[in-house]
Structure formats: C-alpha cells, structure tokens
Specification:
alpha/beta, four-stranded mixed sheet, about 30% helix, about 240 residues
Length: about 240
C-alpha cells in the first residue's frame, strides 16, 4: 500500500520545481518503461497493478491497487504501471550534423511530438532555449511515446549557442525559400519558433537561410501551421531527397 507521503511526492512531480527538488520524474505504461533499461535513464522504483514482469529484478518494485494507480498517474485513463526515474545530469554536448533547435516552444504536446519526429527521422539531438517547456513534463514524456529515451535534449542560452555553432542555421519564414526547392546543407540546425510569436528577433539575426512551406489551398485563409505539423512537413521533404551522412 502506498503511504500518503509517497502519493504526495509523486503527485507533485507534475511541476518542474518539484521534479528538480526531488530529482525525479514519472514514466507511465509498460511499453515505454521497458525501453528505459536500454537508455541513460535510471529507474528508481516501479509501481504496477500487475505482477513484476520487468527486465531487471534489481529494480525496486511495488504492486499496487488500481485506485492507488489513479492517485499517482497523470493520465485520464491510467495505464498498468508508473516508473519513478531520476533526472539526467546536465553535461556538455557537441554538434550533430542535423539538429532541431527550439526557440521558446511552450506546448508540451508540441515538444513531445517534435521529439517523436526527431526519433523517426534519426535526429539524435534537440537544442532548446532555456524557456522551452521542460521535457520531463508528464505530458511531454507521454507524447513522445518512448522517443525521449533515444533523443538527447539539451537546454542552453540559445543566442550564445547560435553565435558559436558551425552548423548552418536555417529557420522558417513566410518569405523564405520554398522548402520544395531548398538544398539542405551538410550540417544544419533547423530552428523552430514559438507557437504564437515565432522565433525571437535575437534568434533570427543568427539565421543563415530561411525557408517556407507554400500554401496550395485556394482560399489562402489558413494563417499558419502548428509548429509540430510544420516540422513534420519540413523533415519529410528534406529526408525525401537526401540521406543523412
């Protein structure tokens, strides 16, 4: 049986300040939890309504009732298990040939979808501005469907990073070059801006190239695309013509 103190701590992990305080975050669902042992993430404990059928007997395991699972889950319809994991230690990173760079993305669903897209296209690293939504947010973790275990997510001072990177900085702009004619550089940072305001002026000044997604609808009344939708279209087009080195 879960104690009231344990429930309180686990429930608090929906907020960034408590994730940082306890150095913990939650991963829900057996399918995703089973991917953790092959990643850099360390499982502290697993709570499950099922018997222990996980890969390692060294991991602390507690069987709980369904009503207890509902108390600690952040899902409307809780799954079978919840894993309590430790946050990764911050470390230095090096540029990859193809990276996504996020400037102030705020919606957890968008970040989760973008991480999943990166995993699909084999992009190993995403660089985030310091005010981009925390990728340990339960909604982000859930939206990635396990892809967060395979994509390195780093947060940094974006203007400082963009001023030093040797990759070509490419950003979206309504007046940019048609994506269907664009020649992808060998080393690229694809920069995606905030959902409502786009990328900041201080980010835009470091762009080397700008690209756009043309509209084909006759009404031309749709003002913009969701940022994760735009990312999917751009990546699909770039990888349709080129293979990664």
């Amino acid at each position: 049986m879960l104690t009231a103190h344990t429930i309180k701590i686990l429930q608090s992990l929906d907020k960034k300040k408590f994730r940082q305080k306890y150095n913990l975050f939650l991963v829900e669902g057996n399918k995703t939890i089973l991917e953790l042992p092959n990643s850099n993430f360390k499982i502290k404990e697993i709570f499950s309504t099922e018997p222990n059928n996980f890969l390692s007997k060294d991991i602390q395991f507690t069987q709980i009732a369904e009503n207890e699972l509902k108390k600690i889950s952040f899902l409307q319809n809780p799954k079978d298990s919840v894993a309590v994991c430790e946050l990764l230690e911050k470390s230095e990173f090096i540029d990859k040939d193809f990276q996504l760079v996020l400037d102030g993305i705020q919606d957890p669903g968008n970040l989760g979808t973008i991480i999943r897209l990166a995993d699909w296209f084999g992009i190993e690293q995403i660089i985030c501005s310091e005010d981009t939504v925390d990728f340990y947010n339960p909604k982000v973790i859930q939206a990635t469907m396990g892809s967060f275990t395979r994509v390195n997510i780093v947060y940094c001072n974006l203007t400082e990073y963009l001023s030093k990177t040797e990759n070509i900085n490419v950003g979206t702009d309504m007046e940019g070059e048609n994506i269907y004619h664009f020649e992808k550089p060998k080393k690229i940072n694809l920069i995606l801006g905030n959902e409502g305001n786009g990328m900041r002026d201080e980010t835009e000044k470091f762009l080397h190239k700008k690209i756009s997604i043309p509209r084909f609808g006759k009404s031309q009344s749709t003002e913009s695309l969701n940022v994760s939708m735009a990312a999917g279209i751009i990546l699909g087009q770039m990888f349709s013509k080129y293979e990664r080195n």
